[in-house]
Amino acid sequence: MNEDDLILPPPPAPPPPCATCGKPEDLCLCAALVPERTRLQLLVLMHPQEQDVELGTARLLTGQIENSVLKIGLSWPSLSKALGRQVDAKRWGVLFMGSKEEVAKVPRGGIAVFGRKDVAPDSDLILSDLEGIVLIDGTWAQAKTLWWRNAWMLKLRRIVIHPDFRSAYGNVRKEPRKESVSTLEAGAFVYGKLEGDPGLQERLLKPFDELLSRWRKHKRRPVKAGLPPPV
Length: 231
Fold this sequence. Notes:
One of its GO terms (molecular function) is tRNA-uridine aminocarboxypropyltransferase activity. The chain has 231 residues and is of the alpha/beta class. It has one domain (38-217). 26% of the residues lie in helices and 15% in strands. The chain has seven helices and seven strands. The chain has a seven-stranded mixed beta sheet with strand order 2-1-6-3-7-4-5. The longest helix is centred in the C-terminal third of the chain and has 18 residues, at 200-217. The chain is globular and about 75 Å long.
């Protein structure tokens, strides 16, 4: 036996990630996502350097909201340009992580829409007037960059939430504030409230529970970077 006989062949290359969600094969849930038909439309703006492919939740949300739009970039001239069609920005809201004082004005388990002059917590006005919701996906610093680089967001109503639950991330990802939750959890909470469907939030969250279960099963390491609050 010579030395060449002792050389082991290289291990097989891992399967390529999913072309849709970018997650590795064992974490991909695209085939299990069931689109929900909702009255409110959804636009998710993702920072191009958002790199938490394994535990990111934005695509889990857009994959479940029918006709939703996900755009990756830093800036767009207007809401209409980001969506690819003409809309009235005043009839859209952006999920905004308000100050502690603003959140304190919202009952726990509720939401409020901050307009230019008024605050309308959980009212019929919200249900009848809003056409769609914008969510920003990225780290806290990345979210702030997207906010300030897209001045048209100031024309949108600011939706502030006060979740009555803690993020399912647990110790997997750290959060800057106790009311901070993932993009999917924030979106599911808002849609569950505004669509008038008591079971919608739970249905939207099921893939997230499965993602975390698979992630823990394979004993991946916790993410050290802090989770950004939704804005």
